[in-house]
Design goal:
239 residues; alpha+beta; 12-stranded antiparallel β-sheet; 4 helices
Length: 239
């Protein structure tokens, strides 16, 4: 993975994040350049620490930050999800938090709900300036159902969480907190937002034995959708 001469060093990238200078245009620029492996690891760390963003992986695609408790991820070929969703009119829509400059109660905060552009505009939604999707802002009390999605995979007989990959469309990042396993497989050691170590490996999608979503209750006091499929296998043929 290469970047042009405008690439930020890992130290500069980390410093920008720490000083709140890591702006949306700067992140857009980084992702559109196919960042180096080191910068990619820092981006993953930021992703975990801040809660996440929605991003189309694999080249010059738009970014939308979501400073919230979820970690939504999309791949342009296969949808890899890690975040909180709601079902409206039969469509699974991403719930993302808006960044607030001043402290607010949960009742005062607004949240965004978005879904892919190709599904057509629904009443009350508008086209997002950050990507090929529609969205609208709501209060938490307006959301009638919610569920948390995490994508997992089997690789060499072991179970991993799937993390975002910002380089191309033929790889995935697999994460494990099993430090011995991570070392054994030659993964990179990084730290989450709380300073705890875990290992991240760059793996070709066709090397993964199985991949699936697990859907559970979200952090919000909102019921699960009726009839929700709690385990959903993803066909590797769709990757």
């Amino acid at each position: 993975m290469k970047t042009d001469s405008a690439e930020l060093s890992v130290f500069c990238l980390y410093s920008c994040w720490q000083s709140a200078l890591l702006t949306e245009p700067l992140l857009n620029s980084l992702l559109c350049q196919r960042p180096t492996a080191q910068c990619c690891l820092i981006l993953i760390m930021i992703h975990r620490a801040l809660g996440g963003w929605s991003v189309r992986c694999g080249g010059a695609q738009p970014l939308r930050k979501t400073f919230c408790s979820t970690k939504p991820i999309y791949s342009s070929t296969m949808k890899i999800r890690l975040g909180t969703y709601t079902i409206i009119e039969g469509i699974e829509m991403l719930i993302f938090g808006n960044r607030n400059e001043v402290p607010m109660s949960e009742e005062e905060k607004t949240f965004g709900i978005s879904y892919p552009f190709e599904l057509g505009m629904k009443t009350g939604f508008k086209k997002s300036p950050y990507g090929n999707e529609y969205y609208k802002e709501v209060y938490l009390r307006e959301i009638t159902n919610a569920f948390f999605v995490i994508t997992k995979a089997i690789y060499k007989g072991y179970k991993f969480e799937v993390e975002p990959y910002f380089g191309d469309e033929i790889h995935l990042h697999l994460a494990t907190k099993d430090l011995e396993l991570g070392k054994k497989l030659g993964f990179d050691e990084i730290h989450d937002g709380y300073g705890k170590p875990y290992y991240l490996g760059e793996i070709k999608i066709n090397e993964v034995e199985k991949i699936w979503e697990e859907r559970t209750k979200s952090i919000y006091d909102i019921p699960l959708p009726n009839g929700l499929e709690l385990i959903k296998e993803i066909s590797r043929g769709s990757i």
